[in-house]
């Protein structure tokens, strides 16, 4: 069973959404429920496909979204400030810390800077998360290009990369229309031939999923049994007991040890038995940090 990433298609946002234009609050509410934002930017010319704003300008399109999200966050921050300021003035130290952070966020938003760019301490991270702001969510920019730009990008893509270099964001290049054509081909061989013809090594969906994993600091480990091989999604830096807990909380509570095979070792030797013969299966304890692609068997008691 494979690991999955759920990508939700949300209808486009228009200017004034923060004030209820278009889908307005419904759109913004959908974003609030997501772990990250994938922002598709038009980076191709085509006279047959009319742009809602009359011209191709990915930086303007990016800023349209940014401004609406920032305005909504500003509204959220100001409402929260009203509550905590009263408590802070009454001597509540926790409220005073919250007020300080909210004021720094407000200052950033007023200058057109998203909340994710505000410098915070480790102590403030939990507080920041509690605000549930839209502009703290990590962003992946997908530059939608024409087929000839699928491999190396184009001038629009370079503009996007330059514009977001101050953000903690990912940028990938996809020829979305071409990808749609590829998915209609019946066999894996036909799809690979099409990809090779335009100079690509893999489908865009693979690139997108990998970028989304990286953006969210996720990785995968595997369990292999008689009935199935299964992929499990965990965070980078998770320990073996935390990884076991994704399967069942009892696995984490009663964790004893993990038998671990590195992915590359499994590929090299071809089977679990041969890995064991070569002495490449390791026994790891509670402190072990799981590596991407590890194949694991857990020992536990309850």
Features:
302 residues, alpha/beta, flat, 3-stranded antiparallel sheet, 8 strands, 3-stranded parallel sheet, 16% strand
Walk me through what this model shows.
The protein is α/β, with parallel strands linked by helices and 302 residues long. It has helices at residues 25-32, 58-89, 93-110, 122-131, 155-164, 176-183, 188-197, 204-215, 240-247, 249-253, 263-269, 272-277; strands at residues 37-42, 139-144, 169-174, 218-224, 229-235, 255-261, 282-284, 295-300. It has a three-stranded parallel beta sheet, sandwiched between helices. Strand 2 (139-144), helix 5 and strand 3 (169-174) form a beta-alpha-beta unit. The two termini are 26 Å apart.
Give the SSE layout.
Elements: H1 25-32, E1 37-42, H2 58-89, H3 93-110, H4 122-131, E2 139-144, H5 155-164, E3 169-174, H6 176-183, H7 188-197, H8 204-215, E4 218-224, E5 229-235, H9 240-247, H10 249-253, E6 255-261, H11 263-269, H12 272-277, E7 282-284, E8 295-300
Parallel strand pairs: 1-2, 2-3
Antiparallel strand pairs: 4-5, 6-7, 6-8
Helix pairs in contact: 2-3
Placed side by side, the strands forming the largest sheet appear as: 1-2-3
The amount of helix comes to: 40-55%
Distance linking N and C termini? 26 Å
Report the sheet with the most strands, covering strand number, pairing sense and barrel closure. 3 strands, parallel
Mean of all residue-level pLDDT scores: 89
Oligomer: single chain
């Amino acid at each position: 069973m494979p690991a999955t990433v759920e990508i939700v298609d949300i209808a486009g946002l228009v200017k004034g959404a923060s004030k209820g234009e278009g889908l307005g609050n419904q759109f913004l509410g959908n974003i609030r429920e997501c772990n990250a934002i994938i922002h598709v930017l038009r980076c191709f010319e085509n006279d047959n496909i009319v742009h809602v704003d009359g011209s191709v300008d990915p930086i303007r399109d990016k800023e349209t979204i940014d401004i609406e999200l920032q305005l909504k966050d500003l509204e959220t921050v100001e409402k929260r400030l009203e509550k905590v300021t009263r408590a802070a003035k009454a001597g509540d130290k926790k409220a005073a810390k919250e007020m300080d952070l909210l004021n720094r966020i407000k200052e950033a938003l007023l200058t057109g800077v998203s909340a994710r760019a505000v410098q915070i301490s480790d102590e403030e991270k939990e507080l920041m998360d509690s605000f549930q702001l839209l502009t703290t969510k990590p962003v992946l920019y997908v530059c939608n290009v024409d087929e000839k730009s699928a491999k190396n990008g184009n001038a629009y893509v370079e503009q996007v990369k330059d514009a977001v270099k101050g953000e903690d964001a990912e940028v990938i290049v996809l020829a979305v229309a071409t990808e749609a054509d590829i998915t209609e081909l019946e066999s894996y061989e036909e799809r690979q031939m099409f990809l090779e013809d335009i100079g690509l090594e893999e489908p865009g969906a693979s690139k997108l999923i990998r970028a989304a994993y990286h953006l969210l600091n996720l990785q995968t480990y595997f369990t292999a049994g008689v009935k199935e091989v299964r992929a499990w999604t965990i965070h980078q830096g998770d320990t073996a007991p935390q990884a076991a807990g994704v399967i069942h909380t009892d696995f984490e509570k009663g964790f004893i040890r993990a038998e671990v095979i590195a992915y590359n070792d499994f590929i090299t030797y071809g089977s679990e038995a041969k890995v064991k013969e070569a002495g490449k299966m390791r026994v790891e304890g509670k402190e072990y940090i799981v590596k991407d692609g590890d194949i694991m068997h857990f020992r536990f008691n309850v």
